[in-house]
From TrEMBL:
<feature type="domain" description="WYL">
    <location>
        <begin position="145"/>
        <end position="213"/>
    </location>
</feature>
<dbReference type="Pfam" id="PF25583">
    <property type="entry name" value="WCX"/>
</dbReference>
<dbReference type="GO" id="GO:0000502">
    <property type="term" value="C:proteasome complex"/>
</dbReference>
<feature type="domain" description="WCX">
    <location>
        <begin position="242"/>
        <end position="314"/>
    </location>
</feature>
<dbReference type="InterPro" id="IPR028349">
    <property type="entry name" value="PafC-like"/>
</dbReference>
<dbReference type="InterPro" id="IPR043839">
    <property type="entry name" value="PafC_HTH"/>
</dbReference>
<dbReference type="InterPro" id="IPR026881">
    <property type="entry name" value="WYL_dom"/>
</dbReference>
<dbReference type="Pfam" id="PF13280">
    <property type="entry name" value="WYL"/>
</dbReference>
<dbReference type="InterPro" id="IPR051534">
    <property type="entry name" value="CBASS_pafABC_assoc_protein"/>
</dbReference>
<dbReference type="InterPro" id="IPR057727">
    <property type="entry name" value="WCX_dom"/>
</dbReference>
<keyword id="KW-0647">Proteasome</keyword>
<protein>
    <submittedName>
        <fullName>Proteasome accessory factor C</fullName>
    </submittedName>
</protein>
<feature type="domain" description="PafC HTH">
    <location>
        <begin position="6"/>
        <end position="122"/>
    </location>
</feature>
<dbReference type="Pfam" id="PF19187">
    <property type="entry name" value="HTH_PafC"/>
</dbReference>
Length: 321
């Protein structure tokens, strides 16, 4: 938390904390806020220059930290901690309910999550609790896939899958040594070593048409490492075809949503982006989704395929209307 976008809300939380903890020590407060002592002192120096309009000594917040003890005064105007808005509280409540529904936490003892959820509901008020309770949290698991995947993980057994691949519209058999279950963007995935691909792979549970627990110990090779899903599931390969698109201001979301190898500003909010397409169907669906907010410019054969498919779709639409 070192950027300016993070610093303001931190300072607005720091002052009420110090007001309610007189005599707090620098090292203790730094630990509470996840900062180094130097970062905390930098924040205190900034707080020392804040206050009411006029900026006379009587208007500014008075803070000192000599000897490691933090003393703050004249900060009553922002002594109350920030409150979450109804949309922020609702988002947190939905996230907590999704976390509680994840398979990895289903059998964890203790009531920490329910207690945190109950406290947040009380603090946020009836509106946020009602709104979040109306949103269903669905982990998208096929009816019998999740129990069998969990059995394979618990027993340390290899899994045999019948897995649907939408990009090729085919069902493929897979043998997988399971390593964990993860939830990314609201979807539940099995992570494991796939013997068909000879690599670590993620498999969406709702695309598993069949799961069988084999009487074979799961034994991933030494090079099998967890897949980094912090930035999403899609990770292009260097062997995937490089495609260039021109995007209007309304289509700029593509550069934020997908990993791009090159992004060039064209003026008036327009962009030219280069990204890797895992297959033709994927880029075709993206181009049709963009409509008039983006177009494929290279490779030429891909641009022609998109044009033909768009014309075919328009012809069908005109025929039906």
């Amino acid at each position: 938390m070192s950027g300016s976008a993070d610093r303001l809300p931190r300072l607005l939380a720091l002052v009420p904390y110090l007001m309610s903890h007189p005599g707090a020590q620098v090292d203790e407060v730094a630990a509470v806020f996840g900062l180094s002592e130097k970062q905390l002192i930098d924040d205190l120096q900034l707080v020392w220059m804040c206050g009411l309009p006029g900026h006379t000594p009587g208007d500014l917040i008075d803070v000192s930290w000599d000897g490691g003890e933090i003393i703050i005064d004249n900060a009553e105007t922002i002594a109350r901690p920030l409150r979450l808005g109804i949309d922020e509280a609702s988002a947190l409540l939905v996230a907590l309910r999704m976390l509680a529904a994840t398979p990895e936490l289903a059998e964890v003892p203790g009531d920490a999550l329910p207690r945190v959820t109950a406290k947040l509901e009380r603090a946020a008020g009836e509106g946020a609790a009602t709104l979040s309770s109306q949103l269903a949290v669905d982990v998208d698991a096929a009816p019998d896939a999740l129990p069998r995947v969990r059995e394979g993980l618990t027993r340390g057994r290899r899994l045999s899958l019948r897995y649907y691949v939408p990009g090729r519209d085919e069902v493929t058999p897979r043998e997988v040594d399971p390593t964990r279950v993860v939830v990314v963007d609201g979807r539940t995935y099995l992570e494991g070593w796939c013997y068909r691909a000879e690599a670590m792979r993620l498999f969406r549970l709702d695309r598993m048409l069949g799961v069988e627990v084999l009487d074979v110990p799961a034994d991933p090779p030494a090079e099998a490492e967890p897949i980094d899903v912090t930035q999403g599931v899609f990770r292009p390969s260097p062997t995937d075809e490089l495609v260039e698109l021109e995007l209007s201001a309304a289509g700029r979301w593509v550069a934020e949503y997908y990993p791009c190898e090159q992004v060039t500003e064209l003026g008036e909010g327009r962009l030219r982006v280069a990204l890797r397409a895992r297959d033709e169907d994927w880029i075709l669906k993206l181009a049709l989704r963009l409509g008039d907010t983006g177009r494929v410019v290279s490779p030429p054969e891909m641009a022609e395929t998109v044009r033909q498919e768009a014309e075919r779709a328009l012809a069908l639409y005109a025929h039906q209307s």
